[in-house]
Amino acid sequence: MTQQIRALAAILFSTLIYLIGNGLLNTIIPVRGDIEGFSNLAIGAIGSAYYLGFVLGCYIAPRMLASSGHIRTFAVGAAIAASMTLLQSLAIDEIVWAAARAFFGFSAACMYMVIESWLNDRAENETRGRIFAAYLTVNFAGIVIGQWLYVTAPPTSFVLFNLSAIFYALCLVPVGLTRLPQPQPAAAPVLRPLHLFKLAPVGVAGCAAVGFANGAVWTLAPVYAHSHGLTNGLLAAFMSAFTLMGAIVQVPVGRLSDHMDRRYVIAAVSALAAVAGLLLAWLGGLNRATAIAIVAVYGAVTLPVYGLSVAHANDRLPRDAFVETSATLLLVNALASAAGPLLAAFVTTWLGTAMLFVYTAVIHGALAAFALVRTRMTEAPPEEFHEPFAPVLPTASQVALELDPRGPESEPPAA
């Protein structure tokens, strides 16, 4: 196992470098937009553009992999990411930024697909769980490190954009030097959202709710923090508290759901997320420590919802349908994430920035109610059909689903 991780070290290191850039850029864009006088609606549209580009990239990237290979596709993605980031530092304009983020989302889908294809290709059935865990750890670590890099320069300067662009350029180096053979492109799964909704409505609703709520939070939470007087290190602490607590709590909450009807757990954490959202809207302006403490609780009860929803949906379907099911849920989440920032922007433009978390509270409250209603309408699947919970990344491509240890067994990788 150690030898296999060493072989994948270049891929994981490139992932870490890339995600450090993402953690920084996703923090600076909304804050800088707010400083430059962009409306909440414009900032929401910029966030939505990223997710639309990501969805498009998930469909086009497999063709690029087949025609150009993994290293060239990764290089194209990194070049687009770096150039679009630099463009945002040169042209402070809402339309330019929205277009740049759409191209960036496309490049992100390409890069995730290359990384995850490589990890999946080298994983064996008995080790892919550990490789998947290493990938998750790298994801959260990179985002948090990037969020803390926000303190290294004023948000009004070009330095933070340039620093992100440097990371996007540097992530090419480990991948460019790797000696791993390039994997064969994976077949695209069939996506049937309506069919899946009939079989697992709470799973589909949960993934949609996460998109509507979290897509808005990742886009507009830095604006909320900035408007409440959290600058520099405090703003970084606000965002990292949300991210870290969500990462830490996912597995314990998931393990709890392995022993009961997952819909009750989805309802419970969603109800708590609604309460935490209302507390942020009501008490977040009292003092900075209160805002950071509440957002940590908010992240702890919000970020596990996606993994719980995926697990619930897969409990109701055979193991060999895992990739199709999870890919469909990923699409549902991505489309909802594209709509979420715009919907939240309308709310905050009309009622104020603090209403961001009232908006998310309504979504989480509705999901909690729907999950409880469904427990009265249908029985839970038998316990023997429960696969052990595993945290998942809604920002991943569909290729990562084959790396998930709950997926169907695969052939051993070529030597």
Verbal overview:
57% of the residues are buried. The chain has 415 residues and is an all-alpha fold. The longest helix has 30 residues, at 322-351. It is 75% helix and 0% strand. The chain has two domains: 1-177, Growth Hormone, Chain: A (Up-down Bundle), CATH 1.20.1250.20; 189-394, Up-down Bundle (Growth Hormone, Chain: A), CATH 1.20.1250.
Structural class based on helices, strands and sheet pairing? mainly alpha
Identify the CATH class of the largest domain. Mainly Alpha
The SSE order reads HHHHHHHHHHHHHHHH
Largest sheet: none
What is the domain tally? Answer: 2
**Could you name the CATH topology of the largest domain?**
Growth Hormone, Chain: A
Radius of gyration: 20 Å
- Helix content class: over 70%
Question: Which regions have little confidence, pLDDT < 50, spanning 5+ residues?
Answer: none
Count the beta strands: 0
Strand content bin = under 5%
Number of helices, counting only DSSP H or I runs of 4 residues or more: 16
CATH architecture label of the largest domain: Up-down Bundle
Q: In angstroms, what separates the terminal alpha carbons?
A: 15 Å
CATH homologous superfamily label of the largest domain: MFS general substrate transporter like domains
Average pLDDT, rounded to a whole number, is 88
The geometry reads as globular
